[in-house]
Amino acid sequence: MPSFLSSSLAPAAARTQPFVLLQSSTAQSCVDVLRFAVREATSKADGCTLLFSLLYPPSALVEQNQLSHERLQIFDWTSQVPGYSEKDFDVKSQMLGTVQDAPQGPMTIVVDSGDILLSDIGSLSKTEQLLASLLSVVKSRKGSRLVIHLNTPSPLTSILTQTRFCSSFTHIIAHPTALISHLATAYLTPPPPLSPPEKFWRVFNPIAERHYESEKLVFGSDGEGSGGSEFVTELLTRGADGSGRRRGVERALEGWSAGAPCELSALGALKALFVRRIAEEQAAPDPTQNLSFNLNLTDEQQRSRAQVPLPYAHEGKPTEQTTVPLPAAILYDPDSADDLDDDDPDEDLDI
Question: Environment class of residue 218 by beta-carbon count within 10 Å: exposed (0-12), middle (13-18) or buried (19+)?
Answer without folding.
Answer: buried
